[in-house]
Amino acid sequence: MEAKQAMQPQPKKEPENTIFVEAEKLFDQMRDFSTHVAKRAYEFFEARGREFGHEMEDWVRAEFELMRHVPIEVTQDDTYVFVKAEVPGFAFNDIKVNVEPKLVVISGRTEKKKEEEKGKTVWTEFRSNQFMRKLPLPVEVEPQKGTAILKDGILELTFARVPVNKGVAVEVKPA
After folding, report:
1. Cβ contacts of residue 69 below 8 Å, gap of 6+?
2. Structural domain boundaries of the chain?
3. For residue 75, which phi and psi values (nearest 5 degrees)?
4. Which CA distances in Å does 149 have to 42, 78, 155?
5. Which residues have a Cβ under 8 Å from the Cβ of 146 and sit 6 or more positions away?
6. Angle at Cα 103 formed by Cα 73 and Cα 164, nearest 5°?
7. What is the arrangement of strands in the sheet containing 95-100, beginning at the earlier edge strand?
8. Out of 62, 116, 127, 170, which could bridge 41 as a Cys pair, Cβ 3.0 to 4.6 Å?
9. Cα-based distances in Å from 24 to 7, 13, 29, 46, 67
10. What is the chain's Cα-based Rg?
11. Hey, what CATH class is 70-163 in?
């Protein structure tokens, strides 16, 4: 009888000290963020042709990209998956969208330059803004059947869902 009781699932016990559990969750989130930053910084390193000497710049740039909050909304119906992203300050040619069957990557980069000249003094100010979001999609989509429209700082993406095969009945015949 004791063996049967041991094999049955036991109810989960609540942790005695939830502070440690919350701290562990926080550390997990920090580790995940650090991993994402490292991967993105390495992408910058590779894009530069593996040129050394810019490690800190790559790291800070990756952190900034990942920390810049771009609000996203993903919804779906029976036929389409819809993605809305708030990207104020970006023009349509500043934004790139890459789509895979279960993933969308939205990135944007804009640079502005302001120059003033007063006599012999020249003053220049550069401003750069960029973001990147990788979004797992709830279902598979057909990447070639998508649209992207930017209106009033809102990027609206629409992708056709991959049709789900419900199967076909096969008739069984005697041998």
Report:
1. none
2. 16-67, 70-163
3. -135, 170
4. 31, 21, 6
5. 97, 99, 157, 158, 159, 160
6. 95
7. 95-100, 103-118, 121-136
8. 62
9. 29, 17, 9, 33, 21
10. 25
11. mainly beta
Question: What is the pTM assigned to this prediction?
Answer: 0.56
Rounded Cα–Cα distance for residues 102 and 40 (Å)? 20
Question: How far is Cα 36 from Cα 41, in angstroms, rounded to an integer?
Answer: 9
**Angle between the N-to-C axes of helices 18-47 and 55-67, in degrees from 0 to 180, rounded to the nearest 10:** 120
